[in-house]
Amino acid sequence: MAELTLPVNPFAGMRIDDTAFLKDVEGRSPCTVCGKSRKFFCYHCYVPVEKLEGRLPSVKLPLAIDIIKHKNEIEGKSTAIHAAILAPDDVRIYTYPNIPDYRQEEQVVLIFPTADAVPVSSLFTDKSLKIKENYGLPKGHHMGTLLRCRFNDILESSPEAASSGLAYRFPVRKAVFIDSTWSQCCGIYKDERVACLRTVVIQNRISQFWRHQKNSPRWFLATVEAIHQFLIELHITAYGLHIDYKGLTHLGYLNIPRDKIVNCKQATDDEMEPYNGQYDNILFFFLHMYNLIHEYYEHHTLRAYRRPLFLEDKYQEQQSKHNA
Asked: Is the pTM of this model over 0.85?
């Protein structure tokens, strides 16, 4: 087989454990809970196979993560499972409609692009940002993603809306993500048990997910990418970004204020350190699959990586063809 030309490694600089030993796992093993045949983990019971017990990284998150998935989603294809396996103490997956009633909980946010959704930084200031209707997309086009915050879409903000300095605290104790298609997401969001939550959008980031999503731009992130992005933004806003951390270099479109970049200090037991890859291992299985895919396919030949960066790009292209 001809040697493939690899793209710039988008995970370069991240602190993700070596995944090479996963390639040595031969065959499939029975799940220790349900007994069904699995490769690395059971996507129904959310546990690793026996031969991988004690060998996988364990990620401690600063807050709880709830993932609501639609019952028609194919479990084996969802990256949400990665988070549940790698951060078992902090991640819970629920199948809709069997979900918690968030009306009974406080300090919980939903990562979902509503008209009044705020960026992560606004969680620390209690200030809201006014966003263009439908995020500036032409009539008839919707965002179709959980993940959208373009700073040039902001029409109004007070000076206090842009947080300065470090907050040294986390303003929420739980974040909820919806793992489903866009049409299914909207149906879940309309449920009053979910619609009661304050909504948050995260910054643009180029997805490295290898599965093609029709009529979607490159900033449509896989669920585990979205969780990683939210955690990064939350931690950096609270405790800063370590000056030596280079894991954000190839993600694209991230806007990290300079006042958040700090020199490392030795934290005490009661303190959190600046972000230096503490949550990067949530992408452990994602990185393995990305590398495996690129062993067999040229990056530029995969449809998932040839999508437009923004929906506007595709709209303008369609309009040009129509007017030609």
From this structure: no
